[in-house]
Amino acid sequence: MKNHLKRYSRLMLLGLTTTFTLASLTGCLHRKKTTYQTYMQNILDVNYKGSFDGYVDDNDGSKDDAQAMYDDTIDYLSVQLINHYSLANADSDEVKNIFNDTAKTIYSQAKYEVSQAYKNGDDYYVDVTVYPMDILNQVFDDVFAYIEDSNKKIAADDYNNTGKEDYEAQFAQGVADIIQEKTSNMEYRSPVVISVKITDDGDYYCADPSGLSQVDASMLAIEGSHDGDSGDSESDSSKDGSSEDSSSDDNDGGTDISSGVEAE
Description:
Elements lengths: L1 H5 L21 E2 L6 H14 L3 H7 L3 H22 L8 H15 L3 E4 L3 E3 L2 E9 L3 H4 L1 H16 L8 H20 L8 E9 L3 E4 L1 H9 L42 E3 L2
Parallel strand pairs: 1-7
Antiparallel strand pairs: 2-4, 3-4, 4-5, 5-6, 6-7
Helix pairs in contact: 2-3, 2-4, 4-5, 5-8, 7-8
């Protein structure tokens, strides 16, 4: 056991450079009359808050669809946290569940505001004001100290009789406890405004995927960044919809496809 655990002495906090992307249902959903503003609010509430009522009542969506969207968003952030804290090789359900719960706790504190839709040229837009959560920087010192303490215990052979999965679960729970404790006093960066284009062909409309990706990339401040540094996101997307998608090539497994709704 000693030889296996010594590799953990090389644990380091890595920069979280992969942007988080929205996971939302493909296809179109029938709906009663609603505004673009309400539609956008409902999509964000489903993905980040796990709040389904507006989506079901206003957009005729099903709870199963909403749950799938929310689960995809949580699962994706959970994977990023696992990678970030050097647990990518942890394959136990316990570790995955620990970080799923942590992702839910983080996103429960997501802070955003949705403006009324407005027309610019031939297109409609909705401005989403995001207050980036600074949780990765809030927990940095405490997590780093926790890792150093863990490494000292490894060097002292404290885990010689501990199995790999048990150690990984203990380590993951320690990190998660720090994050969840800090989340209750979440700090936010200066607001970022993203203009999301609404694509409407007269039959159906949906939010532009690149705009949703920018919203999502702005939700968490990058570790090591400073206020005013937007990280992978742009503070304002262009009104012609030609702004570069903030999702990076490392963003494997995510989806930025939004749910469309039937126009009236």
